[in-house]
Amino acid sequence: MAYDPPHASHASPAPHAPHSLHARAAGVLDGNWTGTSTVPSRGLYPHQWSWDSAFIAIGLRHLSPLRAQTELETLLDAQWGDGRVPHIVFHPSVPLDAYFPSPDFWRSTTAGRTAGAPRTVQTSGIVQPPVHALAAWLVHRADPGLSRARGFLARVYPRLAAWHRYLLHRRDLGGGGLAAVVHPWEQGMDNSPCWDLPLSRIPPAPARSFRRADLDHGSPGDRPTDLDYGRYVRLAADYRDTGYRDGTGAFAVEDPAFNALLIASEHALARIARELGAPGTARHARAERLTAVLVERLWREREGMFFCRDVHTGEPIPERGVSGLVPLLLPALPREITAALVRTACGPHFQLGAGAGLVPSYDLLGEAFDPHRYWRGPAWFNTAWLVERGLRLHGERERADALRAAFLRTADATGFAEYVDPYTGEARGARAFGWTAALALDLLHDPPGPDGTPGTGHTGTRHDGTGRSGGVKGIKGARGVKSSKSGKGAGGVEGGERG
Description:
Blueprint: H1 21-32, E1 48-49, H2 50-60, H3 65-76, E2 88-89, H4 103-106, H5 108-111, H6 132-142, H7 144-150, H8 152-169, E3 180-181, H9 184-187, H10 196-199, H11 226-241, E4 253-254, H12 256-275, H13 281-298, E5 299-300, E6 305-306, E7 309-310, E8 315-316, H14 335-346, E9 379-380, H15 381-393, H16 397-413, E10 419-420, E11 427-428, H17 434-445
Antiparallel strand pairs: 1-2, 3-4, 4-7, 5-6, 7-8, 9-10, 10-11
């Protein structure tokens, strides 16, 4: 791709484009398309980001299923030998100083050699939430004929199985069955107050040792502080200097959203396996066992939501972030837990339906709340999409409809902003943001059915005939479940179940 400066003419839809939300969203994705993948933002984020591409593919499937398949294939082509999918795939034509940390910081081809980093493309060494199998399944469903003709699922399935295997084995740092993140950037909600406690143990890198390119494109009041950024740099450099070896760092957190997305993608992998001729039952069973582990380890009944857990101390992190609501996506959650999550979302801490009508990224009553600073309070569109899906899955039709309407209204009014003030809906961060436009397209194309049930694009088990289980049994006995260690080896379609 040829690098374009932040104010290139195609950073937003062409002025002659038809004035409809659909056309404007499509124009954003066209403007951010590089030929093989989509950048989140031409100025602030000029490379390919992992979970962004998954969300973007979900929207692209409504415009061009081929482009959506290519989006995911390009990302998976940069997968490491140990199975990890890196959080950034760098475009070689983008100047090094356009984004930090740049390829010369990560040194993937040298520092990551032992872990199997690719030699022909430069990447970061950390990961992001595993939305990819879910995205691959939805992309397939958009045009099954094209998908089968291209062998799309058959080619991506082994890579997705290896990705999940890496998370379930290499990243089970707490020994209880959940995947841990080793850097706040991996969880995707970069500077959430949920990270403040474990981050406080990390000495920051000296300010003179790096230059923050993000401040060239965003207000300092919207971005992480220099102190937090120094700690991010220190963590990443330490991980790099160990050859990206897991289990050696000072930061390790079990996060509810990260693991909920892994579980949702396990359900999607089961559907992919069925499409390829295998039963898929082992993966569905694993997803339900992981749901039980998630509840046992991270559910806080008193607070009515899931909390992060610091692996090094074994203690929950006492902060309410939107991450703790994302497990609404899971079809096998016990009904009393889904009811409590809905009450919490609509209660004083998140006030779903009030203000801008979206979901704030952090507790409105929390001491660290800031309506403008990145993940410390603003409302984001990808988490709104996830919560909308969860609400609809569990029968909360009116609330899901209201959230869907607020999403589309706010995305339209802000020019597809990166995130917004949770009270006013004022645009913050980048404009013409990739996943905002993509997920707006998805909500436009996949409205609720006449009976309020999810359409073909929604998560959950009802679409493939397995039905909803109404809750996981045996939660009290779930501690220590190693659900990834049963079943077939990596060579089978069922895949990824090797011990």
